[in-house]
Design a protein that fits this description.
single chain; 194 residues; two-stranded antiparallel ribbon; 4 strands
């Protein structure tokens, strides 16, 4: 299992050791990446996958990218005075597809249940992870953006500054959300409290 994070790779390898397959391992690794690299991954993001089924010799593709929200339209944006999509903020957000993608991949190709493959990510979010050099650079470059949002600041900043390499970051709110998804599946994310 190869990923940018040793924690994510370890999570995927552990799933393989417990009888999971490549899809189970990929989801476990991706879920950990949502914790340790939140600026690139996340339950609020998208998912794309290509799966090769060795038995049939076929490839399957999944585009779990988000659709525009039902209330969003070009006309609505024009009424707000916008002529192009903003790079930040709620107006540019799409309906997240990652959680739906996890569920679809597991239902079709997985051997494990969502709860089992999300357990490592829940543990990392609760117990914390040491910020890597590369992640520290990205937190530092986005510190002003994070400060502009109270929830983001409370979640990702330490004493109103970006976490430094080696500092431990915990995200109990993400652990709670992942636990709800683990127990209730995709509906916990799209129809539940989250």
């Amino acid at each position: 299992v190869a990923s940018e994070s040793p924690l994510a790779s370890k999570a995927g390898a552990a799933i393989l050791e417990r009888g999971g397959n490549a899809v189970d391992a990929a989801i476990a690794a991706h879920a950990v990446m949502t914790v340790v690299a939140p600026m690139w991954n996340g339950i609020g993001g998208d998912l794309f996958a290509i799966v090769y089924d060795a038995k049939s010799g076929k490839y399957y593709g999944l585009n779990a990218s988000g659709w525009s929200p039902a209330g969003q339209s070009i006309e609505r944006l024009h009424k707000m005075g916008l002529r192009e999509m903003p790079q930040h903020g709620i107006e540019s957000a799409t309906v997240p597809g990652a959680v739906d993608g996890w569920q679809k991949l597991l239902d079709r190709f997985g051997k494990k249940k969502l709860g089992e493959v999300l357990t490592p990510a829940i543990q990392v979010a609760e117990n914390g992870y040491a910020v890597t050099e590369w992640i520290a650079v990205h937190f530092a470059s986005d510190v002003d953006l994070l400060r502009n949002n109270g929830v983001a600041a409370r979640t990702f900043l330490i004493s109103d500054r970006a976490p430094k390499m080696g500092e431990v970051v915990r995200n109990p709110d993400l652990a709670k959300s992942l636990r709800q998804i683990a127990q209730g599946g995709r509906d916990a994310f799209y129809r539940g409290e989250i």
